[in-house]
Q: What sequence folds into this?
């Protein structure tokens, strides 16, 4: 089997058998050892691995923003300062991941490939709902690992071309999927604080720039109260990853664009450490 | 039990080749040629859904003529091969040469195995490079031969006459509209020297591997309005942005 991946030779029968348009299904039947979920740890064992933390998402007029901080921690140690946790899934959707970094990144790679594979085989793209469901399957297959402390908890956001608006889906470790109808969502260790922040700042009719600012504010608040979430690192010039998904597709804000937002928020927080205030009534 | 007739290996292979060639010659041609920004694929195909030209991987595309179920099978096998290889190693490790080798082995084994009928297909596997010197085009015949092609190549019915026509007129650095016009003129020619047919955009399937595309995936179908404008010789349509992006990765 391996020989057919690396060298030449006739395509094995599995390659030429008509069947599923899913790359996952193909891997499952042809090379199951490559599926992340198939790797089980010995019973009762846990390992410590770097964890990614806070991801936030918010719907705005004409799309959705998905943003993540850059910190990965292992226990109380900062394992990585510039990790990326927000990835395009395809042209019109993106996935942000909190949880065990190694597994999460692998899951994203496989998810991207799953969508691309379907698109190439079928000649058409999956519906946003369909993409969200494929992700459910992948998280569910990771349940055994999640039970041993290696959980992956993504946020999936995309622009629904049929409905003409942005949508957000969140997941729990069992693969439970829920659409966030409030318009914003957060996952990861700092999500409690990020969600509180967005609850106060979010409103209908935001535009893309405002939504990006909202996301960075929420990440700032998560960093403020959660030690595992990293804020804008002005000294190292490491800023959150902010991506916008609209009718025009996925766009990751450039380093300069995010820096501008982050610096203005940081400046403002020097005056008001708790950030913008919402009216009492 | 009666003794089977002896057939010499030469005769058996010649018969199989003849069988496959006849099947292929019935189909309409596909033209693949290089232009300034990459590789252009033009097929005569009235179907919107059954493609003769498809994306395989980032920089690799596939074109085929012959029996649909057979080349569709090979196409899906190729996508699975490329995706699995890219997943196991890296996206950069998926190459047209590797894919062509796998197809050659597959076709060759089928061709010479007694139990199977040879595939009636002819394939093209092309990869767009960083510069035009790096572009690769491979033609695969039903017996599993691989031919490394340059500039312009035609497979399917009338391949020879169209190939000659293109060979004389193709030059490096053609614009997209020019290259498309050349390909369509080639396809529309009557091999017996009569008046050329008129091919409308609805009868054509056109796609490019465009090295200028900012996306990782360089394959793009040229559809509807843009195709009509390019056919009418409007070179500016070539520079059109991927505003109708929903269709471009189809």
A:
């Amino acid at each position: 089997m391996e020989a057919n991946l690396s060298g030449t030779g006739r395509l094995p029968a599995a390659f030429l058998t008509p069947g599923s348009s899913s790359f996952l299904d193909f891997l499952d039947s042809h090379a199951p050892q490559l599926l992340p979920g198939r790797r089980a740890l010995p019973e009762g064992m846990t390992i410590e691995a770097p964890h990614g933390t806070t991801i936030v998402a918010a719907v705005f007029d004409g799309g959705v923003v998905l943003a993540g901080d850059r910190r990965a921690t292992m226990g109380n140690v900062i394992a990585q300062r510039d990790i990326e946790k927000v990835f395009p899934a395809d042209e019109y959707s993106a996935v942000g991941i909190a949880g065990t970094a190694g597994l999460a990144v692998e899951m994203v790679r496989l998810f991207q490939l799953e969508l691309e594979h379907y698109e190439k085989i079928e000649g058409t793209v999956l519906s946003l709902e369909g993409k969200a469901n494929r992700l459910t399957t992948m998280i569910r297959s990771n349940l055994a690992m999640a039970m041993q402390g290696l959980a992956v908890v993504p946020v999936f956001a995309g622009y629904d071309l049929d409905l003409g608006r942005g949508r957000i889906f969140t997941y729990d470790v069992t693969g439970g999927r829920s659409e966030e109808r409030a318009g914003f969502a957060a996952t990861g260790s700092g999500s409690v604080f990020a969600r509180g922040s967005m609850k106060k700042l979010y409103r209908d009719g935001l535009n893309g720039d405002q939504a990006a600012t909202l996301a960075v504010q929420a990440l700032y608040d998560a960093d403020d109260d959660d030690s595992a979430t990293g804020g804008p690192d002005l000294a190292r010039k490491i800023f959150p990853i902010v991506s916008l998904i609209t009718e025009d597709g996925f766009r990751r804000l450039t380093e300069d664009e995010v820096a501008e937002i982050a610096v203005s928020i940081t400046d403002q927080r020097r005056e008001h450490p708790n950030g913008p205030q919402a009216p009492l009534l | 039990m009666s003794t089977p007739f002896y057939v010499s290996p030469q005769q058996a292979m010649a018969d199989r080749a003849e069988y496959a060639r006849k099947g292929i010659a019935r189909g309409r041609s596909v033209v693949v040629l290089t232009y300034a920004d990459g590789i252009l694929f033009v097929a005569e195909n009235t179907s919107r859904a059954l493609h003769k030209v498809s994306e395989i991987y980032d920089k690799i595309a596939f074109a085929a003529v012959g029996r649909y179920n057979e080349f569709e099978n090979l196409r899906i096998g190729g996508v699975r091969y490329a995706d699995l290889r890219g997943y196991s190693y890296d996206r950069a490790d998926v190459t047209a040469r590797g894919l062509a080798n796998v197809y050659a082995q597959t076709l060759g084994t089928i061709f010479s195995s007694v139990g199977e009928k040879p595939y009636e297909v002819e394939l093209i596997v092309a990869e767009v490079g960083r510069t035009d010197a790096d572009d690769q085009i491979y033609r695969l015949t039903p017996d599993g031969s691989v031919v490394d092609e340059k500039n312009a190549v035609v497979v399917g019915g009338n391949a020879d006459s169209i190939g000659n026509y293109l060979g004389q007129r193709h030059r490096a650095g053609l614009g997209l509209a020019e290259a498309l016009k050349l390909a369509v003129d080639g396809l529309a020619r009557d091999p017996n020297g009569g008046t050329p047919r008129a091919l409308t955009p609805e009868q054509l399937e056109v796609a490019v591997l465009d090295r200028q595309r900012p996306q990782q995936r360089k394959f793009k179908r040229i559809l509807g309005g843009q195709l009509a404008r390019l056919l009418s010789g409007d070179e500016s349509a070539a520079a059109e942005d991927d505003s109708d992006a929903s269709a471009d990765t189809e």
